[in-house]
Amino acid sequence: MAPESLTAAQIHGLNNRVPVAPALLRRIARIGGYDVPAPGNKIGAADLSAAVDPGDLQELLLLAHVADYEDAPAPDRVREMHTARHVLGELLSDAALDRKTVHDSLPAGHTALLFRMGPPLIVSPDIVRVIPEGVEKPSSYRSSTESWAGQFLAEESELDNGLGPHDQTPPKRGYPRTRIGMSLVDGPDRVWSSARGYWSLQPGARYLVPSRYGWCPYVFRVDEDSWTRLSAEAGPRAKYFAGRGWLIDAEGERLIEMGPENPDNGWLPTMTVSDQAPTEDDMRIARLLSGRAIRLGPASTNPVLRLRQKGKELF
Fold first, then answer.
1. Beta pairing, strands 112-116 & 207-211
2. Most distant CA pair in the chain: distance in Å?
3. What is the pLDDT at residue 150?
4. ∠293-240-247 over CA atoms, to 5°?
């Protein structure tokens, strides 16, 4: 049942207009590597290939401290705070990787993609329950009411309060899930559920590296021929999702199969240790990237980055 009204905090988040002083923005950009010449006074002309996106830095700086001031924050919020501090420390130190270093270190025989994941967003149709009567989706928001509510109104805890997918049936195309995006404390099952689709890309990649703020906690291997087009129509905007996949456990030197979705567990995959052994290439990419941070440069409209292209040099 929806609440009678929103809180002032929810309305503040709904408006999503937080002014930041230009001087503070400049300071944040400088620590992210933006203190470089911009020929012609065009930011696009600056060499920012090994920089950290200032927007990512802003969010990380907030995540690294907000839970300290909340009243009884949830355990995941505390974990997220400490993880944000760790990620910040790595991104702003010599420990951070850059895309060229990653490219040159990966096996040339396979395509590896990095997905710049957004914030967690609940996509369960049941999310409409959190919308109080009289609150309507703004006309400027073009996506569905469910997507709007999931992004601007719902909290992560809503999934634990009856907004799960237990009464849903799998979609006719694609795969079932209740959430997209990624937080700093998500386990591999939740990340796989969000990251395996749906993306506008050239199918055939073997390795998937979901990333939040440049941090890459997990590396997944997929069957290169398991990519499936979501829509019936092909074209440059066609979206695909990965089929069969495995988490590459670098520390345990094993593959963990991301099995069928479990409707009684939020449609998360069933994880089982595979009888297959990881290949040398599997271990190479997992050891390089699992739990590491990459300076990805400025954010762009395309969240799919090629870390390595099969048979092609990118740098």
1. parallel
2. 58
3. 62
4. 45
